[in-house]
Amino acid sequence: MRSAAVTPGGDRIRWVDLPGAEPARVYVHGLGATSPAYFAASAVHPLLAGRRSLLVDLLGHGHSDRPQDFDYTLVAHADALAAALTEAGVAGAELIAHSMGGSVAIVLAARHPHLVAGLVLVDANLDPLPRRPGTVGSSGIASYTEAEFLAGGWAEVRDLAGAHWWSTMRLADRTALHRSAVGLVTGSVPTMRELLLELPIPRTYLLPAADAPLAGAEALEAAGVSVVAVPDCGHNIMLDNPDGFARATAAALS
């Protein structure tokens, strides 16, 4: 495992670095997840293997540090990730990014264009979201104040999330989890969707076939974003249908 200091205080992002041909591929997880758990099988799938692959844990998640003075907005996550990729010697990478990680990847590509040559967004958040008490996901987490979440709201989220998501969510710092959720529902300015429409690089958006059609798909496709529905899966496409995910991702990157 490799790491890089990405904040003035020396907090470190960590990643698994699989050797292979350049340019690199960078895998970025979603809220309350960790890239090695979600993407290891994909990175070595026969359709995707052979490229240098970085399975990155964002600050506050997985194996990375958990600074308490970090605001965990999309911009902050993107800039920290940019610092890690720069330290890793990455430029012109292909990013494969899930859910919140997709939102971070869009902001990264807009703010640090030399680092990103293409995007595969895996059921990523493109728009600000409403806060929805009593629901699972970023909208539910962000419906608590930070004090409420730390005082016990996290346990209610744990019970709603279920054993699979909680198995990685429990690795995230609770302050980081809440602030990241708030950052995600708040979104970016311009919005992630608006940024995505303007990016001058190859872009593909993968979604579960059961959730198609994607809202705003016509405008995305008119701007050159390929929208691809993957069968037999839910939100965690790479885990639910590994072969379908690998086929769709390989086609997007070919």
Automatic annotation (TrEMBL):
Domain annotation AB hydrolase-1: ranges: 26-126
Keywords for the protein's UniProt record, in alphabetical order: Hydrolase
UniProt GO MF annotations: hydrolase activity
Gene3D superfamilies listed in its UniProt record: alpha/beta hydrolase (3.40.50.1820)
Record-linked Pfam families: Abhydrolase_1 (PF00561)
Alphabetized InterPro entries for the sequence: AB_hydrolase_1 (IPR000073), AB_hydrolase_fold (IPR029058), Carboxylesterase_BioH (IPR050228)
PANTHER family named among the record's database cross-references: HYDROLASE ALPHA/BETA FOLD FAMILY, PEROXISOMAL MEMBRANE PROTEIN LPX1
Descriptive protein name: Alpha/beta hydrolase
